[in-house]
Amino acid sequence: MTGVGLDSAVALCNAGRFAEAEAVCRRIVELEPRNHVAVHQLAIAVGRQNRFEECLQWLNRVIELAPNAVNAWRDIGIVHCNTRNFVAAKSVYQRTVGLDPRHAPSITQLARICTSLGQLDESIRVCDQALAVDPGEHAARGQRAISLLLKGDLVRGFADYEIRHSVANFSDKKRDIAVRQWDGRAALANKTIVLYGEQGLGDTLQFLRYVPIVMSKGGGRVVVEVQAESLRRIAQSMPGLSKENVIVRGESWPVADFCCSLMSLPHRLGTTLASIPSRVPYIKLDDLTRQQWGERIAPHPFKIGLVWAGSTKHTENAWRSMMPEQLAPLATVPNVAWYNLQRPLNSPPPFPLINFMDRCNDFYDTAGLVDQLDLVIGVDTAVVHLAGALGKPVWTLLPQRPDWRWMFQREDSPWYPTMRLIRQRTEGNWPEALQRVVGLLKALPTPSSKHAKA
User: By C-alpha distance, which of 418, 394, 423, 395 is closest to 407?
Assistant: First the structure.
């Protein structure tokens, strides 16, 4: 009867009916309090309801009953990761790997934890260990890519990053494209190549910089596919592109000889930290757009645009974004006209904010607005990429554990010469980071200073 009950609980969990699974497990555990399998399933059902403290209590009970229950140790480590206690998670996963040294996914998870702790060399070594156990452990190669990129080893990092579409749960599914992938060396003279965006809109804004380089490789036809209509006019603004050369995902491709993801171009072209194509602006506005936005924006000594939250679809959004009320310290900076760059504007910060985002139908319109500002301050979203691509001064607020492109410790970005990076010094501590922003703004020599970059 117990086996049937546990099978039912597992099925309920798999169906997302966690409260019902919990109820089934509790009845079994009341009858058989030393049944560590039932206690473990109860912990899983509780954890899937985000009751992590209680989940840990039940998992610790499993360990009391079965000290070498490796799956319970793994789940304890996962709970610590979910609660951002990476020091505890590392200790647990070291124990887990010791119990099952041939389980490559556990070794890979230990590598992820090392990366989260900023222990990049150790993370790379542990990834190597996972791949020695199982050369087909794609997640280990993907994690090694992240650690290498965070270190600034772009050649090895981008080479490993090519595995991304083979990693389970990767944000973008691998596309079935019946066109030959360009290797970065094949001649393009009299050929047509399609360069396509992937992942987030900010990723495409960042890697559009490679389009002119591909155009210089032999004079063939280059077509760019972007993920969303909001990027169409931005791509069309690239030198050498036009309406005929830009399509949106879902539209028909031309007959093509080659294709390549924009995010694979750094690898295919052998980009190093020293050879990043960092010249800005690489997105340019036409004179009419500049004139129209110049007429809309009232003169002011210092105009700053703000964006404080990213897409809720992003797995790390809760950590990279902030609440608008957390921006309150900025109100203490005198002689600033604050402009909204946040969309949607569900709740504004607690000080006056000038809003023209209802006039912005796409990123090209937003670029027209940003072009009129003296400085953009924002979290890690597409808007800061847009400002950087336009060559505008931009201060990017980063969580303690940033995305790979921002690396660790640096206050500048090799991708955007006009960008300053302002990092959390402790996990989730936006107030301290914003106090530094306030200090930096107040220390500028004049309100209209153009030296807002570090």
Answer: 423
